[in-house]
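Memo to structure team: turn this sequence into structure tokens by end of day. - J.P.
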Amino acid sequence: VLQGFVTLAVLFLVLYPLGWLWLGSIRTDPFTPDYTLKWYGTIFTDKVLWARVVNTLIITAGTGIMCLIIGVPLAWIVARTDSPFRRQFELIAVIPFITAPLIGALAWINLAAPRTGLLNLLYRQLFDPALKEGPLNIFSMGGIIFSLGLYYSPYVFLFTAGALKSMDPALEEASRVSGYGIIPTSIRVTLPLVYPAITSGVLLTMIFAAEQFAIPALLGTPAQISVMTTTIFELMNRRPTNRSLAAAIGNLLVVFTFLLLYLRNKILSRGAFTTVTGKGHRASRIRLGNWRYLTVGFMTTYVVTSVLFPSIALLMVS
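Reply from structure team:
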């Protein structure tokens, strides 16, 4: 009975609206019973619409790469090294979850808008007061990817750190006893064991990036950069509206995010690839020596860019 109830609930909450979305995408007009596939052809043949699909793909891939570059090293530093302040950073790293990407984007507009951003104003006052614009421009493709990657990277960090903490350290110790150093051991032993967690976190951030509307609208509109979500909004709010084309783009976005979700679940279905023994164990920590200054600098840079600078900017503007 419970399984039947859950099945009916999922069918109503998911398939019912998706069915109407599909039906709307093949109508010549929302109020007529005539059906056609021309709207899907329009997406792939219209240069403007196709460019917006490509923009979505670029932002999605860029966000995943940035989250990978930020999240994995941070997780390794916190979970497997003796870096100073790692425990404090593990608590601070969840603050971007509280601020949310939209709030972070608003803060970085106040920091890196070409003419009025606080960092650009400071640069012009210090180096060249005659400049009309500073070197930073948040209203760009790079700005969108930067904002999304900065605030979605904690997903990769938490996924990877959890996997690293649950690993059996005997495997890495065996590698080091066999003559491999820290870097070869990390590449040949550690990463293969936690790669399902890494890829799962990266693909999840890519799904979020593909579905994001507010940040591309906020940062992309001034630079005339549109993506699939903002295109749907435009089609539904301009006169005359084109609901059928908007539904077709929505279906394409659903298919794209479904493929990413399917790929993520496929990777997770293979197992976590971590070992669990019959006895308790604590992951060994790598002694960094003088390299600890580099790890502290890396953690500090992330905290400053994702928490400190945006908080100061919001406080000053408010």
